[in-house]
């Protein structure tokens, strides 16, 4: 099998490429240049896809004895990930750029080019498992629940899964991967994992958004519409947030208040008690299915609304282009723009972007 190994410069993708070579595949390594800022440097474990990462990927490919290339996807990344991130925040939603990157870059743009060049599959260092079932390939959780990345891969379609290769899916822990990398002589064996948003390497998302979206002062309201404070820009807030609220009017019960809603049109932020974050229903229309699609109607499943959240038992309903989910117990602090991934046991059914939420606590409660 001809395999294109996406090599980020980290330990996971390097070991994944090495295992593809060991399996006897014809492997070519590629690093994606996602930024046109030539001086972009890595700071500790912040960011990825930097100059250092490209060099680390090349050294790993050289050690494995495979061809290596750097492909410039910066324009596509800017349009499909960065601009989407900005527009979502501008609309008062909370996007997940890693989901968009997997959907639009790694398993769309990269896979499309790989197939055009005659490759059979794209190999990555994601922790997830592929199972070939009677009705096609299925995406399942990884063996290591702590490292499982099936949530951020929930955007993959059946066609994309058919050309995907995850060599690390059954690995019991990240420690095993690091030990294997050291044994192979890979210099990235102890390289720290990247975190935060890769195109905001200093971690100052609030400041970055203020520069891109603009910061305009506005009111902070309680659930009754009374002004209880001021803010420096609604884009800096997300549902469930407690820190950074400059409230001049204390709550009548003396308890902390949390962001319940962001209203970009009126440039206001609504706050209230923690109980009001309980969400009884979510729905959305921007959905995809990882394998066979469920028929219109209702079905039981588990739903995960964040990368590291626990899955929640729920009842899902699919009607035409809309998906609605009612959890057995309310979700806690769901924001429009987040991604809900549906599971049947360990198998990923599909995902949708949350567009509407229904509070479990009525306004007059």
The CATH superfamily of the largest domain is identified as HUPs
Alpha plus pi helix count: 7
CATH architecture grouping of the largest domain: 3-Layer(aba) Sandwich
How much helix, percentage-wise, in residues? 10-25%
Could you tell me the mean pLDDT? 90
Q: In angstroms, what is the radius of gyration?
A: 22 Å
* Overall tally of structural domains: 3
The CATH class of the largest domain, by name, is Alpha Beta
Can you write the helix and strand succession as a string? EHEHEHHEEEHEHHEEEEEEEEEEEEE
Question: Count of DSSP E strands?
Answer: 20
Strand coverage percent? 25-35%
CATH topology of the largest domain: Rossmann fold
Distance between the termini: 61 Å
Indicate the overall shape. globular
Backbone structural class: alpha+beta
Biggest β-sheet strands, sense, barrel:
9 strands, antiparallel
In terms of per-residue confidence, which ranges show pLDDT below 50 for 5 or more consecutive residues? 38-46
Summarize the structure.
By secondary structure, the protein is α+β, with helices and mostly antiparallel strands.
What does this structure look like?
With 365 residues, the protein is of the alpha+beta class. It folds into 3 domains: 2-184, 3-Layer(aba) Sandwich (Rossmann fold), CATH 3.40.50.620; 215-272, SH3 type barrels (Roll), CATH 2.30.30; 277-359, Beta Barrel (Elongation Factor Tu (Ef-tu), domain 3), CATH 2.40.30.10. It is 24% helix and 29% strand. The chain is built from 7 helices and 20 strands. The strands form 4 sheets. Strands 12, 13, 14, 15, 16, 17, 18, 19 and 20 form a 9-stranded antiparallel β-sheet that branches. Strands 3-2-1-4-7 form a 5-stranded parallel β-sheet, sandwiched between helices. The chain has a 4-stranded mixed β-sheet with strand order 9-8-11-10, with no helix packed on it. α1 (11-22) packs parallel to α2, α1 (11-22) packs across α6 and α3 packs antiparallel against α4 (97-116). The longest helix is centred in the N-terminal third of the chain and has 20 residues, at 97-116. The protein is globular, with a radius of gyration of 22 Å. Mean pLDDT is 90; it is low at 38-46. It comes from Microbacterium oleivorans. Residues 208-272 form the tRNA-specific 2-thiouridylase MnmA-like central domain. Belongs to the MnmA/TRMU family. This is tRNA-specific 2-thiouridylase MnmA. It catalyses: S-sulfanyl-L-cysteinyl-[protein] + uridine(34) in tRNA + AH2 + ATP = 2-thiouridine(34) in tRNA + L-cysteinyl-[protein] + A + AMP + diphosphate + H(+).
């Amino acid at each position: 099998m001809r395999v294109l190994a996406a090599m980020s410069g980290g330990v996971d993708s390097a070991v994944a490429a090495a295992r593809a070579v060991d399996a006897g595949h014809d492997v070519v390594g590629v690093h994606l240049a996602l930024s046109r800022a030539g001086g972009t440097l890595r700071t500790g474990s912040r960011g990825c896809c930097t100059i250092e990462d490209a060099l680390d990927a090349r050294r790993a490919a050289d050690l494995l004895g495979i061809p290596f290339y750097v492909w410039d996807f910066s324009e596509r990344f800017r349009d499909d990930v960065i601009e989407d991130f900005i527009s979502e925040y501008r609309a008062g939603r909370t996007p997940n750029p890693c989901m968009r990157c997997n959907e639009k870059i790694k398993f769309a743009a990269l896979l499309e080019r790989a197939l055009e060049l005659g490759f059979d599959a794209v190999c990555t260092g994601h922790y997830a498992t592929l199972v070939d079932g009677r009705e096609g390939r299925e995406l399942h959780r990884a063996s290591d629940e702590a490292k499982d990345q099936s949530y951020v891969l929930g955007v993959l379609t059946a066609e994309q899964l058919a050309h995907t290769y995850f060599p690390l899916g059954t690995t019991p822990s990240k420690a095993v991967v690091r030990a294997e990398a050291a044994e192979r002589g890979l210099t990235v064996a102890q390289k720290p994992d990247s975190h935060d948003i890769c195109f905001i390497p200093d971690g100052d998302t609030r400041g970055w958004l203020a520069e891109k979206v603009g910061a305009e002062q506005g009111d902070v309201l309680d659930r009754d519409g009374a002004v209880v404070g001021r803010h420096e820009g609604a884009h800096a807030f997300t549902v469930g947030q407690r820190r950074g609220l400059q409230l001049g009017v204390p709550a009548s019960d003396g308890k902390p208040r949390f962001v319940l809603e962001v209203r970009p049109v009126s440039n206001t932020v609504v706050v209230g008690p923690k109980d009001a974050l309980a969400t009884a229903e979510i729905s959305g229309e921007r959905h995809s299915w990882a394998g066979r699609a469920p028929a219109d109607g209702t079905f039981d499943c588990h739903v995960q609304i964040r990368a590291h959240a626990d899955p929640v038992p729920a009842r899902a309903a699919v009607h035409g282009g809309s998906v609605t989910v009612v959890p057995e117990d309310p979700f806690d602090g769901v924001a429009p723009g987040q991604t809900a991934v549906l599971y049947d046991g360990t198998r990923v059914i599909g995902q949708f972007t949350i567009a509407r939420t229904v509070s479990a606590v009525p306004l007059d409660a």
